[in-house]
Specification:
With 621 residues, the protein is an alpha/beta fold. 42% of the residues lie in helices and 15% in strands. About 1% of the residues have low confidence. The structure holds thiamine diphosphate (TPP).
Length: 621
């Protein structure tokens, strides 16, 4: 087993493999990927689809001199294995192990760090221009999926690349899918090229027929390829790209090594930007993933034989949100939902089925999603925009400019807020609390458990201003259900009254605060616990009260400390001149790598043991 793969120890070793062995090599790569992902979770279907494409790229390029930029980067597993990282592969996405995304610090063969979509063409164009300015000689390739082609940055980059007079290769990996079914006009356009056999055959036939005419035929066919006239428009697919000034090649069968190698070698000769349209099958080679590519896009542990995916028996925050927003949908016909290519991940699939006319999947276009929602709100509807915390980063200006300045009633449902774990730096939702709270007119809320998520969702319908509700990935906390004081704008919730030390916790950290309280009680310290609920506006009445009765206040948040809740509390006390010692628990000023959430929290002193030990040492000293 894995005989051919054994021969690949470092980048470019694939060039020593006999072409008759390529199929076996592809099988071995798939087996290794399926096995590792079944144990550590990861992006299975996307990776299985690009095995041959990656092999072909590695055959045609010289790494690390040449540069491959993987859009999103979730499909880079074969690339990692072929560049000397096979032995590290079992540690994929684990704490201290290999990242699931390209990382320049991990390998010289990873030309660019990615994680968020639609950046590859911009970065590749930057590399090309750097190459020209420095007079260097290497090939630059961006590999981008059809789903990522729904992101606006792609068109900014293509617009820019049209002027290029040197080689840039853009591989458009078209598998018809984003995470779910792809949406929008570009998807329809690609589908037309892909499926219109007449179109493709017509092109080939005309060219072949012309070439057969002795004397003039060949030159006519050549000039047809070069000319920009309407005849070409009629005959060659990809006219949209050609009109932009980008050469189009394809469609190419993305599982046929010969076709792929030929296309890439041809593309390398172009003195301009060229798109190679490659058709692949998502999940290729593993039946359960071929049949259900969405479920195997990003997947947790699963049983390889049966294809059964391990599932937590508990309800997640996303599922709780899903129920709540459906309830609101039945209560009020103005309720509409918006997501950016992630109906399933954000819990909107059921809403989309129940209220198809009130659901909008805009593609991977978070900036557009927010301004679009602002338009919906201005038009009299009540939009709920469900996007992961880290992807909301894209839409900061739209939140300020289009929603908060005109004070529109848009609800931002910030999923995956906090440490997400195995996806690492690019996906941790640790900035949203700071960036939402910094905007005038914005209200920011974090529920302590799933019941409070239901309550704030009900509250949101009556609230006429911008509101962000942040909740974490994974199982919803079920504890403290009996404490369910009605939600009042800007008011926190007293959970346990104690003395000396007050724990003032935000959202997911309320559960931690309750554990800390138990540990402190073992040492005879009865701490107060307050559920902050609102990060903005601050409950200053509660802060005044806490300052009177405690000599130490511990703020706890799953967010960077910079610009976070703790800083706002300290700032309030300082401005008011109240002599309270405030200790901040949160994420330091650094990017949080990948790994299991518990391990990551421990590494930052955010687990209940570390927090209580820290408090005790301060109190006893
Ligand atoms: C800005 C941003 N929004 C959302 C995502 C989540 N996401 C990861 S992959 C993906 C779909 C990408 O589809 P495509 O480019 O076609 O790649 P495929 O997985 O089909 O190979 C999405 C929406 C992301 N990575 N970045």
């Amino acid at each position: 087993m894995a005989d051919i793969l054994e021969q690949i120890k470092q980048a470019n070793d694939i060039k020593n493999i006999d072409p008759s062995q390529y199929e076996t090599l592809a099988d071995e790569l798939r087996k290794l990927i399926i096995h590792s992902v079944s144990e550590n979770g990861g992006h299975l279907a996307s990776n299985l689809g690009v095995v041959e494409l990656t092999m072909a790229l590695h055959l045609c390029l010289d790494l690390p001199k040449d540069k491959i930029i993987w859009d999103v980067g979730h499909q880079s597993y074969t690339h990692k294995i072929l560049t000397g990282r096979k032995d590290d592969f079992p540690g994929l996405r684990t704490y201290g192990g290999m990242s699931g995304f390209p990382k320049q610090r991990e390998s010289q063969c990873d030309a660019f760090d990615t994680g968020h979509s639609s950046t590859s063409i911009s970065a590749a164009l930057g590399y090309v221009c750097a190459r020209e300015v420095k007079g260097e000689d290497y090939t630059v390739v961006a590999v981008i999926g059809d789903g990522s082609m729904t992101g606006g940055m792609v068109y900014e980059a293509l617009n820019n690349a049209a002027r290029l007079k040197s080689n840039l290769i853009i591989i458009l990996n078209d598998n018809k899918m984003s995470i779910s079914e792809n949406v929008g006009g570009m998807s329809k356009y690609l589908n037309r090229i892909r499926t219109d056999e007449n179109y493709v055959e017509f092109k080939t036939d005309v060219k072949t027929a012309l070439e057969r005419i002795p004397g003039i035929g060949e030159s006519l066919a050549r000039s047809m390829k070069k000319s920009k006239d309407s005849l070409k428009q009629m005959l060659i697919p990809g006219g949209f790209f050609e009109d932009l000034g980008i050469e189009y090649m394809g469609p190419v069968d993305g599982h046929d090594m010969e076709q792929l190698v030929r296309a890439i070698k041809t593309a390398k000769k172009e003195e301009r930007a060229v798109i190679v349209h490659v058709i692949t099958q998502k999940g290729r080679g593993y039946e359960p993933a071929e049949e259900n590519p969405s479920a195997f896009h990003g997947v947790g542990k699963f049983d390889v034989k049966s294809g059964e995916i391990a599932k937590s028996p508990n309800i997640t925050y996303t599922e709780a949100f899903s129920k709540a927003v459906q309830y609101l949908g039945t209560k009020d016909e103005r309720v509409v939902t918006v997501c950016a290519a992630m109906p399933s991940g954000t819990g909107l699939t059921k809403f989309s089925k129940r209220f198809p006319h009130r659901f909008f999947d805009v593609g991977i276009a978070e900036e557009h999603a927010v301004t679009f929602a602002a338009g919906l709100a201005a038009g009299g509807l009540r939009p709920y925009v469900a996007i992961y915390s880290s992807f909301f980063q894209r839409a900061y200006d739209q939140i300020i400019h289009d929603v908060c300045i005109p004070d529109l009633p848009v609800v931002f449902c910030v999923d995956r807020a906090g440490i997400v774990g195995a996806d690492g730096e690019t996906h941790q939702g640790i900035m949203d609390l700071s960036f939402f709270a910094s905007i005038p007119g914005m209200t920011v809320f974090a529920p302590k458990n799933k019941y409070e998520l239901y309550d704030i969702m009900k509250f949101s319908l009556e609230f006429e201003h911008p509101l962000a509700i942040r909740y974490p990935r994974g199982d919803a906390y079920e504890g403290e259900r009996e404490r369910r004081a009605p939600i009042v704008h800007g008011k926190s919730e007293m959970l346990y009254e104690g003395e000396q030390v007050a724990l003032l916790a935000v959202g997911s950290m309320v559960e931690t605060a309750i554990q800390v309280r138990e540990y402190l009680a073992e040492d005879g310290l009865e701490a107060t616990v307050v559920n902050a609920r609102f990060i903005k506006p601050l409950d200053t009445d509660m802060l005044d009260l806490l300052a009177e009765k405690h000599n130490m206040i511990v703020t706890m948040e799953e967010n960077v400390l910079r610009g976070g809740f703790g800083e706002a509390v300290s700032d309030y006390y300082m401005t008011k001149g109240l002599p309270v010692f405030v200790k901040h628990i949160g994420i330091p000023d650094e990017f949080v790598k990948h790994g299991n959430v518990t391990q990551l929290k421990q590494s930052m002193g955010m687990d209940p043991w570390a927090i209580s030990a820290g408090i005790l040492s301060e109190v006893l000293l």
